Amino acid sequence: MSDSIVVQKVSDLMNKLTDPMVGIPVVIAVAVRTALLLSVVLPYVLDPYGFRKYPGPFPAALSKLWIARQAGNGNRYEVVHDQHKKHGKFVRIAPDHVSIADHNAITEVYGHGNGFIKTEFYDAFVSIRRGLFNTRDRAEHTRKRKIVSHVFSMKNVNSFEPHIAAAIVELFKQWDAMCEKAAKFPGVDGNSAKGRAVFDILNWFNFFAFDVIGDLAFGKPFGMIRSAKDIAPVKPEGSNQTVYLPAIQILNERGEYSATLGLLPMWMRPLAKKLPWFSRGVKSVKNLAGIAIAAVGERLANPSDRDDLLAKLQAGKDENGQPMGREELTAEALTQLIAGSDTTSNSSCAIIYYLSNNPRIMKKLQDELDKVAEEKAGGEEVLHFDYEEVKSLPYLQACIDEALRLHSTSAIGLPRLVPEGGATILGEFFPGGTTVSVPAYTVHRDTSVWGEDSEQYRPERWFERDPKLLQSSFIPFSYGPRSCVGRNLATMELALLISSVVHRYDIEPLEPGKKLPTAEGFLRKPLEFNVAIKRRDV
Ligand code: HEM
């Protein structure tokens, strides 16, 4: 696009934006318009990063507001994906940000020792104080990561298994009761008439994930499965009173708010927080912190000899032998709650969505699990599996991975700052201080890696294609020094929950073939998934 057309387009835009300034002295209106115009057009025309050559939506080249708007609409991953389909592997999604949809860029952007750090996008996620997830400083991150990665070593994670198993037992008590009721009192409509219990399985997976992380990170489950309610004790910052609030809803609101705020220029953020939509988000951030303050406070006031994540965080020491203080401990426990709850429940929901919509695959997985159950109990009832029994089942793992690939709860390109001196990625030079990202949703659909049917849910592809290539293109937990520290725990939780659910219940979608409705904050979240279930005859 020629520079004069750009100036004209932007000028029209600015005129529209500043129209309401009726009544403001003409001189001021003109000055404001000119300042806005120059701040947007000059960088475009001067092209200091050499980014004008990259295709993408025109407003994205002018201002960060374009990408912030996509995030606010809840489908940034999809809009960026469509741009890549249209333009290829490089797309400019903000004046200083290029999205690179190529698996070969993953190690270059996210790998160890490359010097790329998290951008100021992550500042919008800070509450109480910086935790492992939103710390940007490299030295501070290394210090925290040393303490926390020890907590999630395979040996430690194995000691968490009884807490997960207890939550599965609790969940099945509720589901069994609903199944029994539905079988005894078949309803008049299609599914309950068949003696199936009908419910939104996403809700239950949320209750499950919150109870597990509450149990591990705060010393006891929130009791959501038992009460079948989204409710948790909260001590708002600066208050001594405990109130009860919907934690899952608060977490969702906070994710949407932070993921949008983080895309606005720094100077705009304090102003944006005054707008009604954002001010609700500010409240959610405070309330979420209040959950950690209440829970950690209670645990510290009543020390226990429990062997859980909080105990291990308390015992953890940095390289100087220093443990974390109370505030840091609370912030890290909060980080685990945020990072380890709806990531797991969204993924569990997506896995069951794909399995129940593909009866052939579900049956094949059930056959694999029935064999294990037979070996374990010789025909007696198996309430749930142990990790040792399911961790190496090839088809189970392929079913889980295939759903993580397609759903990608972390779907956006996680933004990283190019280090001083710049970097060359896939032959293209990116100056220091610019932002690059590799979008998981798009990389997970690359037909040259996953096959022409990459949009299909087909676990068999994991046995047919080059395993090295697939693994190097599979980033549900990201990659490198900032990849998911809780991956071992998440892998165990998913394997235990999915194997046990699929073995015990026959699950049908209430509306077969219906697209899973999603909305994206920081994560791509399913909105609901209604199923009709009954106990299997096993
Ligand atoms: C299926 C479940 C999960 C998925 C898909 C997932 C995915 C991810 C991804 C993509 C990142 C990188 C985020 C970024 O760079 O912005 C991440 C980081 C992180 N995850 Fe997970 N996660 C899961 C479960 C968990 C669990 C169970 C925990 C802990 C209880 C956890 C704790 C963390 C933490 C603390 C970080 C920040 C690590 C750092 O910056 O050093 N995650 N996770």
Helices and strands in order:
Layout: H1 3-18, H2 26-46, H3 58-62, H4 65-73, H5 76-87, E1 90-94, E2 97-100, H6 105-110, E3 117-118, H7 138-151, H8 154-158, H9 161-184, H10 190-193, E4 197-200, H11 201-218, H12 224-227, E5 232-234, E6 243-245, H13 247-261, H14 269-272, H15 276-301, H16 309-315, H17 326-340, H18 342-356, H19 359-377, H20 387-390, H21 394-407, E7 416-417, E8 423-425, E9 428-430, E10 435-437, H22 440-443, H23 447-450, H24 461-464, H25 467-472, H26 487-504, E11 505-509, E12 518-520, E13 524-526, E14 530-535
Parallel strand pairs: 2-10
Antiparallel strand pairs: 1-2, 3-7, 4-14, 5-6, 7-10, 8-9, 11-14, 12-13
Helix pairs in contact: 1-2, 4-13, 9-11, 9-26, 11-17, 11-18, 13-15, 15-17, 18-21, 18-26
Bound molecules: protoporphyrin IX containing FE.
Protein model, in words:
Helix content is about 55%, strand content about 10%. The chain folds into two domains: about 45 residues, no CATH class; about 475 residues, Cytochrome P450 (Cytochrome p450, Orthogonal Bundle). It is α+β, with helices and mostly antiparallel strands and about 550 residues long. Helix 4 runs antiparallel to helix 13, helix 9 runs parallel beside helix 26 and helix 11 packs antiparallel against helix 18. About 45% of the residues are buried. The strands form five sheets. It has a five-stranded mixed sheet. The chain has a three-stranded antiparallel sheet with strand order 4-14-11.
